[in-house]
Amino acid sequence: MPDADLLAHLRFLRSLGITHLPTSSAERPLPSEAPVDKQESSTPADKHTGTPTHQHTRTAEPPRALPVAEETDLFEQQRTAEVATLSPTERRARMEARAKELADCDRCKLCPARNHAANRLVYGAGNPEADIVFVGEGPGEEEDRQGIPFVGRAGELLTKIIGAMGLRRDDVYICNVVKHRAPGNRDPEADEIEACEPFLLEQLDLIQPRVLVTLGNCATKTLLRTKVGITRMRGTWQTYHGIPTMPTFHPAYVLRSYTRTNREAVWSDMKAVMAKVEGRSS
Question: Model pTM greater than 0.85?
């Protein structure tokens, strides 16, 4: 299969949520095919009689599957290399095309609600070349109405935080784990997250940010595959698909518990993010 066709096929599999590819054992030599040391290959003789002694023959071990990280490595490298050749205009066009495609998405039980007049897909917004991407859990009522992430009260606070960092919303990229509002603003469920995560990964591939910021418990636990709560996780660098990731409190939580301690904690996290982007921290 030509490289271009292979890349297209891999992207198609990723859009279906298929992230692990089988590895053919034919591509890896069996242990029995490995060169044998000359001293081991000769048959030793009894030092008294000269009669050949019994030689233990090593049997070939069955081929073992590569670890998941290695299985997906080829896919990740090829996809990243292909995306790196795209211009900002092409990246934006791809994201716009995906957002339009997902308007008719039926991959999870949140999707049928899009038929209601107020329900919209909330794909994401911002700079397709952003150094920093903020990820929340899912759209709220106001985001659902406007089709834009973080435009309610929590969004206003996030905008102020971004401004305090010396940036504008147009300088960063903002999105959520899921693209449709959950009933009653409940947390997204596992099957909804699984259906939507390939599109979040695609967004991050196209943007290629230097830093990812997870906002709140749901986004942090979902992306980092952890059961540790945000109170313990925030302020500590993590990694998501190779991207340095800073977990911090969700703006909605800060509004509910508007203490100096919480505000200072978030600001400390954002200073660490800026230092990472500017190359002032490891």
Answer: no
